[in-house]
């Protein structure tokens, strides 16, 4: 049996849960919110599941409706269209493919979104986030941009955190909801800030993996293994990561920073590593880039 209820837009919303309960009925939680999740890939599904576990009224929509069925079985409402889902909630979580897809859903629904809060967890560039923010502001929509620093299986766990920027008052209002995904870190009113922190953190991750891949090839030339290298490198890198706050001073306030070793020393050390890479039969451009980035030499 599939019943319908009427959303705030006047549209009929399929409940999809076999119940004729009105859409606006609150759960037992005094802090329950009406939240819609647009996009049910692995990450969107994990976000919706965390909201359901938190006791919120969750409406979902996905281009392939079958993906919503497990969530419907857990208590979510399946909307017939993305427009219906957007109109059904005070807080909208968007987790779709890209900026184009986000606009495809949001722009036609501008009128029904007025006065609501949209949290865009779609991966975009900082300028795309700012541009969407300008559009939202012109239509009276509170927009928060976000960057998820976790894989789907981590959502709701102790290791997950999500970066947010944009409408600060809306962020504080919905912080208890957003913290269901992981630690909620607000990084600034600039809508591009969360995306910039996101790509900067990911850049550090990819640089680490690139160096490990290069090192793995190098140690194999001596009969070693990448597995053995991983066991030795991981604790060393964890220890070195504690020095990031020290190096941050050199970026934020260079005049206050006293280097532990000179640029010339660092450049010579990287040159030695690069020479060893060549000797191992694994030449790379990686170390030249590191040398220029870290020392300017």
Order of SSEs: EEEHEHEHEHHEHEEHEHHHHH
> How would a crystallographer describe the biggest sheet?
8 strands, mixed
- Helix/strand class: alpha/beta
- Residue-averaged pLDDT, rounded? 90
Q: Could you explain the architecture of this structure?
A:
The protein is α/β, with parallel strands linked by helices. It is built from twelve helices and ten strands. Strands 5-4-3-6-7-8-9-10 form an eight-stranded mixed β-sheet, with helices on both faces. It has a two-stranded antiparallel ribbon with strand order 1-2. Strand 9 (161-166), helix 7 and strand 10 (183-186) form a beta-alpha-beta unit. The radius of gyration is 24 Å and the shape is elongated. The N and C termini lie far apart (71 Å). Residues 1-30 have low confidence and may be disordered.
Features:
47% helix, 12 helices, 297 residues, single chain, alpha/beta, two-stranded antiparallel ribbon, elongated
Quick summary:
The chain has twelve helices and ten strands. It is elongated. By secondary structure, it is α/β, with parallel strands linked by helices.
Describe the SSE topology.
Blueprint: E1 4-6, E2 12-14, E3 34-38, H1 42-53, E4 57-61, H2 69-73, E5 77-78, H3 82-87, E6 91-94, H4 99-106, H5 110-113, E7 117-120, H6 126-138, E8 142-149, E9 161-166, H7 168-178, E10 183-186, H8 193-220, H9 226-241, H10 244-252, H11 263-279, H12 286-295
Parallel strand pairs: 3-4, 3-6, 4-5, 6-7, 7-8, 9-10
Antiparallel strand pairs: 1-2, 8-9
Helix pairs in contact: 8-9, 11-12
């Amino acid at each position: 049996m599939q019943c319908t209820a009427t959303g705030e837009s006047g549209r009929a919303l399929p409940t999809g849960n076999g119940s004729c309960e009105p859409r606006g009925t609150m759960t037992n939680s005094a802090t329950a919110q009406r939240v819609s999740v647009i996009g049910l890939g692995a990450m969107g599904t994990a976000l919706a599941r965390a909201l359901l576990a938190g006791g919120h009224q969750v409406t979902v929509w996905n281009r392939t409706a079958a993906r919503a069925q497990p969530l419907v079985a857990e208590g979510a409402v399946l909307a017939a269209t993305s427009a219906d889902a957007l109109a059904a909630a005070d807080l909208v979580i968007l987790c779709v493919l890209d900026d184009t897809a986000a606009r495809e859903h949001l722009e036609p629904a501008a009128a029904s979104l007025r006065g609501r809060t949209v949290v865009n967890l779609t991966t975009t560039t900082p300028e795309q986030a700012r541009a969407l923010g300008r559009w939202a502001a012109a239509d009276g929509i509170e927009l928060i941009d976000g960057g998820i620093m976790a894989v789907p299986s981590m959502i709701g766990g102790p290791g997950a955190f999500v970066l947010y920027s944009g409408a600060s008052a809306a962020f504080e209002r919905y912080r208890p909801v957003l913290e269901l995904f992981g630690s909620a870190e607000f990084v600034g009113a600039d809508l591009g800030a969360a995306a910039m922190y996101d790509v900067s953190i990911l850049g550090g991750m990819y640089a680490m993996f690139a160096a490990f891949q290069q090192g793995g090839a190098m140690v194999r030339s001596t009969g070693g293994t990448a597995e053995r290298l991983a066991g030795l490198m991981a604790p060393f890198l964890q220890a070195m990561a504690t020095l990031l706050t020290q190096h941050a001073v050199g970026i934020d306030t260079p005049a206050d920073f006293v280097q532990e070793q000179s640029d010339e020393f660092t450049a010579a050390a990287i040159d030695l590593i690069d020479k060893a890479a060549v000797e191992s039969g694994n030449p790379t451009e990686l170390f030249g880039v590191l040398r220029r980035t870290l020392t300017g030499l």
